[in-house]
Amino acid sequence: MPERTLRVGALYPELLNIYADRGNLLLLERRCAWRGIAFALTAVSLGDALDPEAHDLLYLGGGQDRDQALCAEDLVATKRDAVHAHADRGGALLAVCGGYQLLGHHYALDAERRLPGIGLLDLHTDRGEGRLIGNVAIEVDLPGAGGPRVLAGFENHGGRTVLGDGQPALGRVLSGHGNDGRSGAEGAVRGAVIGTYLHGPLLPKNAWFADWLIATALGIAPGELAPLDDRLEDAGHASARAAAGRR
Ligand code: GLN
Questions:
Q1: Residue 97 phi, psi (nearest 5)
Q2: How far apart are CA 36 and CA 217, in angstroms?
Q3: The domain spanning residue 30 has which CATH number?
Q4: Which candidate in 55, 86, 97, 237 is catalytic?
Q5: Strand partners of residue 128
Q6: Confidence at 131, pLDDT banded by 50, 70, 90
Q7: Is the CB of residue 68 below 6 angstroms from any atom belonging to ligand 1?
């Protein structure tokens, strides 16, 4: 019998699943299984109630504007208080791209249409001219991660995200566009709540970050997780970094 279980709640997995969001969840499942940690995945979708005590990690993926609009209304109407309560008790949350935008105050599609956000992170997003697309590398300094580390990934967003004055970014852009293509900031962090534009196979490309999430969600230090043979993962990470460097 596994001693521990990582309880993951995937929000709107059938709508917010653009670019490998399912793969990110699968990677979490595998890295837990290899260590004898049980993995319980629950889908929480349109109209479902969210129990703020039920999950160690919430996952909110990316989506096209159309799918985001459906989720935005539902998130605000039926899950906002529970997501806040989850975060306030230290629960972890990873929100990617479209999901990240929904954690802010709003996502304005144009002058008339504004999707509401749940205000968990102090930021807002407005649609800009053209899309910000390409490989990206950022430097992040997460508690317990043993100093600054690199996250490498891929971004593709029309939204430009502006952080509030006291809102820390997730990281500093080394190459790529980040939140708005000019501030040098990428993503946002509040305790164990992480929002980022890095999608595609974010977790497979950054196994160290997957472990940080697993450990943080379980309330232990990343160093307490049993080490795995990460030669393949490390090579994948190096190649994602190199791809970002070649922009
Ligand atoms: N629809 C949002 C944007 O274009 C998010 C896109 C995404 O999740 N890839 O900014």
A1: 55, -110
A2: 16
A3: 3.40.50.880
A4: 97
A5: none
A6: very high
A7: yes
Rounded Cα–Cα distance for residues 58 and 225 (Å)? 20
pTM: 0.96
Whether 159 is in the pocket of ligand 1, judged by its Cβ within 6 Å, is yes
Amino acid at site 13: P
The domain in which residue 193 lies consists of: 5-243
Question: Residue written as tokens 């970050």?
Answer: 209
Structure-block tokens of residue 103? 């954690």
Q: How many domains does the chain have?
A: 1
Instruction: Read off the pLDDT of residues 186-229 as tens digits, 9 standing for 90 and up.
Output: 999 999 999 999 987 899 999 999 999 999 999 999 999 999 99
84 flagged as catalytic: no
Ligand 1 atom with least separation from CA of 19:
9
Q: 52: CA distance to ligand 1 center in Å?
A: 26
